[in-house]
Every structure is written in C-alpha cells, then in structure tokens.
Amino acid sequence: MRSDSGKLALILFMAPFILWIVLLIVLPQLGIGYVSLREKLGPRQYTFGLGNYIDFLMEPIYWNTLLRTAWMSILVTALALLVGFPVAYYIARIAGQRSRSALLLFCLIPLWVSDLVRAFGWIVLLRESGLISGALQWMGLVSGPVEMLYNDATVVIGLVYTVVLFMIVPLYSTLDGMDEVLLEAGYNLGGSSFTVFRRIIVPYAMPGVVAGCIITFMLTAGSYLTPILLGGKSSSWFTEQIYNQFITRYNWEAGATFGVILLGFTSLAIWLGLRLTGQSLATTVARS
Amino acid sequence: MIDEGKGRLFSLIYRSYMAVFLLYLVAPLLAAGVFAFNDSLFPALPWQGFTLDWFFNDTEPKLGMFHDERLLRGLENSLYIGIIVSAASVAVGTWNAFLFERSDFPFKRLLYLVMVVPLVIPGVIIGISILLFASMIANGAYAVFGSSPAWLRPGIPLIVLGQCSFLITITSLIVAARLQKFDVALEEAALNLGASRYRALFTVTLPFLFPAMFSAFVVAFLVSFENFNTTLMLVGSDAPLSITMYDRIAKVGSTPVLNAVSVFLMVTSGVLALLSVLVQGKRS
Fold it and tell me: How many domains does chain B contain in total?
C-alpha cells in the first residue's frame, strides 16, 4: 500500500517530466492540429472543418511538393544505405583494430560540423566560379564555367552527405556484434559469397538497417537548409512551403495544415518501417 | 590461384571505394576551411597568398569576422542560448533519468516511449508548434488581462523552449544509460555509514554521473549552437549565429568571412567533442 505522502512525493518527482511533455510537446502539437481545422471567414471569425485539408488536395502545387519531397527522401535513404553499408561493413569487419577506431572517428567528424557549414562547403565547391568548375576548365575538359548548383542531382548528393553518417553509425553497431563463426558456417555449408551476404549478413544487420533508414528518412523529409541552399529557388521542398505559409504569408491555418500533413507522413513512414521488421521505437532510437 | 587474384582485386576495389568515400566526407569541409586563409575577396581560386585578414582585419572590404558587429552579436546570442538550453536540458534530463531508473509508476513503459517521441518530430514542426502555442497563450492573456508578456513573441525565450523540447530527450537518454551502470550497493554503503540521503546523492551518485552529465551538456550545447530548423521558426530580432550566417549566404552569397566563420565553428566543435571524449575516458 502506498501512503498519501508517498503518492504526493511521486507526483512531485514526476512533475518536471510531465511539465516538459505536456507544455512543450503535447499541447503545442494539439495546437497545430486545432489551427489546421480552423477556417478563416473574416477578421477574428472562424469556423471549424476540413476546409484547409481540402484546399491542400485541390492545389496541385502543394501535393506535388509533398510527393516530390517524399520521393526524393526515399531516393536519398536508399542511396545512403547503398553508400553507407559497405563503409560500415569495412569499419566493423575488415579494418584492423587500430584503423577501425581511427576510421570511425574520421567518419564522425562531419557529424559535429553544422549543416550550414557543410552546405556552404558544397556551394564553394560546386558553384560556377567554384573549385570543381575551375579544375575542369584547367584540365581543358570544359571550355567555360559550369554551374553545378541548383539541380536535383546536387540536392541529392548534398542530402546523402548530410545523412549518411546517421546510417553508418547504427549499421556499424549491429555489424560489430556479429560473430565471425556465423560467416564461416555459411561458407562451410557451401554458400557462395553472395549467398552468405544475402542469407546471413543482411538479416543480421536488419535492426541497424531499419534504425538507419528511419532516422535518415526523417532527417531528409524534415530538412530545410540543404535543399534550399543547394537547390535554389526551384527546389520546392515541403518544409519550405511550411515556412512560406507561416512566416512569409502569415497564413497560419494553411501552415499548420501542412505541418500536420508532414508529421503524419513521417510518422507513417516510421510506423511502417517498425511494423515491417517488428522493432519497437524505444529500442530503435536508443540504439542510435 | 585464380581465387586469390580475384580476392586481391576485390580488396583493392574495396579500399579505393573507402578512399573515395573519405574524400567525399572531407571535400566540402576542406573547401569551406581553406579559403578562409586566401588573400582574395572571393572564396575561389586562384590562390592569392596566406592571410588571417578574414579573422582579424578591422576595415572594409576585408572585414574580419572578429570585427563584424552582426556576426559577433550572433555569436553572443548563440552562446547565451546554448548555455541556458544545455544547463536546463541536463538538469531535467538527470531528473528524468532518476525517475525512470529508480522509481515505479503506472504506464512507465508508455511514458518512456513518449519521452523518446520528440526525437522523431521534424525540427520545423517543433518550431511552428511552439510558435503557435505561445501565440495562443498570448492571445488568451490579452483577452483576459488586456496585455500579453513579451517573451511569448518570437525571440530568445521561445528559441530556448523550442530547443529544450527535443534536447531533454537526448540528455535524459545519455544520463540514464550511465545511471543504469551504477551499483546501488555503493549508495547503500554510504547510507549505512551514516550519510543522509542528500549527502549520499551528492558525494556518491552524482560524482559517478558527472561524466555523462558533462557529455550530455556538450552534446546539447553543440546541437543548440548548430540548430537551424527549429530556431528559424522562432527567431525574433536577436538572431543566433546560424541564422545570421544563413542570411548572409542567402543574401550576399559567398564571401570569405563565411569561410572564416566555418573554420571557427569547426575548431570549436572539434575541441568541445574532444573534451567530452577525454572526460568520459578519464572517469570510466
């Protein structure tokens, strides 16, 4: 039996946690949901309904931006997995003990550098008067300056760069725990390298793959700086729409609607990823 | 024999792939860094000779970052926000760690899940949600009292709240991981030796947690310092450095002073990360 004073102590003990979750997370999120259902009739006159969501569906520019963001995010996640897997495997399984920690540390360096500096670095490299354009001219491969910014390929390269480390770290930590005996058993049973990779390594790494993909996808879909700075005016990224509605046009109802849609969209992707592989959110996030 | 040749070729290709990947990782950072020291008005080739003007020169057109009023004010705001945010996040995070590791309450597993959720909400959405919620409270206060507190308008207080909302999750996880490793027998020994609960907490448990709290502080500070998405939605007239630098890139384009800021940011975060690794290594 818990005494009354014990209950009071527990409530006090929980107070900071509850205040944080309720005031900074739950109520503000409910606030967006509330405003997204509010339709403006005139100054200080509102009615409630799904009008803002219908507006979203009726305006091709809006949902095309969402589809484009979704499709690019899937592409970036797939590329990050493709690029990151061999790197994580090399660090965890092939590199010697010494070079392993050096490589891991090396891979983590860009993680500590802000998005802004990384994007700025790409601008210095890729713009018309940038390093790569200059090098190509110097080698005589092109006759005039080449503009490599402001196209989709650059945005994808920049985004993969920003998120690939969040793919490598969870992959590395799962692959690192794999027992060499598993691989030997696979080869002894007559498996080819490809079979061993497909039937042993991939299933073993699956928790890391899921964790990496979820974080990568979420970071990409929610990113703002890289698509805008590297993609320029034509990038049409969904977060940019939210910013425009909220800050530039001061249309909070539409902005909140877009916010709810983006949140629903990333949550759905995360839920699907967890569902397909039978993982739980707590362990997945804690692992990374 | 053929197999061995194949294996060697494979290993050669694999190594070259790793080399290309590492080059991909450092190329933009090098490009951002090197041109801070080029004695030219543009961050581009040709190389005009080494200079530190982009850091220390005090006259236009080569105004160094340490004489650029707006950049300095941004830096000051960033430091101020970063310190408040990390101190608050570490305090609440440590409290949460004790709550989840040391006590039992209804719906504990569900609430643990709730604690992790802020990490999977995109930063832009955290930003607009705090902005909206603050303005709703401000409107309510205006309707009741005829005025509303200034801190509910976009500005540093809202930035602090917005960043804390997801950083507390990170600090809670870091401190809880260390608290899990703590041997409760040590605390019991202190209590048996006649220490009060507070004394045991402050002389045994908290010193054990210190490395984790320190590294949580550093991580929170770095994330706060570099945060852009949440901050962008909440910024008022006192912009932190990340916003100031973004404005500069978007409006002025690239100037070597931004390379200088990049070098400064890279060195600072490198030193802080190293410090946190050292403290963790020494204590554990």
Answer: 1
**Contact in structure between B169 and B177 (CB atoms under 8 Å):** no
User: Per-residue DSSP letters for B176-205?
Assistant: HHHHHT--HHHHHHHHHTT--HHHHIIIII
Report d(CA A67, CA A238) in Å as an integer. Answer: 9
What's the CA gap between A68 and A220, in Å, rounded?
Answer: 12
3-class DSSP state for residue A147? coil
Find all residues with CB under 8 Å of A167, minimum gap 6, and list them.
Answer: A80, A81, A83, A84, A85, A88, A212, A213, A215, A216
What is the C-alpha to C-alpha distance for residues B104 and B107, in angstroms, rounded to an integer? Answer: 9
Contact A39, A49 (CB under 8 A): yes
CATH fold of A50-112+149-287 reads MetI-like fold (1.10.3720)
- Nearest residue to B71 via CA among B187, B197, B279, B242: B242
Q: Which residue of B has its CA nearest to A254?
A: B128
Tokens of A3: 């005494």
Q: Which domain holds residue B139?
A: 2-283
Which one-letter DSSP state was computed for residue B213? Answer: H
Beta-bridge partner residues of A40: A46
Burial B206-226, CB ≥16 within 10 A → b, else e: eebbebbbbbbbbbbbbbbbb
- The span from the CA of B258 to the CA of B36, in Å, is 8
User: Which tokens is B68 given?
Assistant: 């650029």
Domain edges within chain A: 50-112+149-287
The yes-or-no verdict on residue B119 having pLDDT over 50 is yes
- If residue A48 lies in a helix (H) or strand (E), which one and from where to where? strand A45-48
b/e per residue, A155-190, with b = 16+ CB within 10 A?
Answer: bbbbbbbbbbbbbbbbbbbbbeebeeeebeebeeee
Banded pLDDT at B16 (limits 50, 70, 90)? very high
Distance from CA of A58 to the nearest CA of B (A): 23
* Closest residue to A124, CB basis, from B35, B114, B130: B35
Q: Are A56 and A257 a contacting pair, CB within 8 Å?
A: yes
Amino acid at A17: F
CATH number of residue B108's parent domain: 1.10.3720.10
Residues of B in contact with A117 (CB under 8 A): 29, 32, 262, 265-266
Q: How many CA atoms lie within 13 A of B107 on its CB side?
A: 7
Q: Looking up tokens 């430091």, which residue turns up?
A: B79
CA B21, CA B188: separation in Å to the nearest integer? 51
d(CA A218, CA A241): 17
Q: pLDDT tens for residues B69-85? A: 888 899 999 999 999 99
Q: What is the pLDDT of residue B164?
A: 94
Tell me the average pLDDT of chain A. 83
Interchain contact A46–B (C-beta under 8 A): no
A246 touches A252 (CB < 8 A):
yes
Q: What pTM was estimated for this model as a whole?
A: 0.87
B168 reaches A (C-beta below 8 A): yes
Quote the minimal CA–CA distance from B175 to chain A in Å: 12
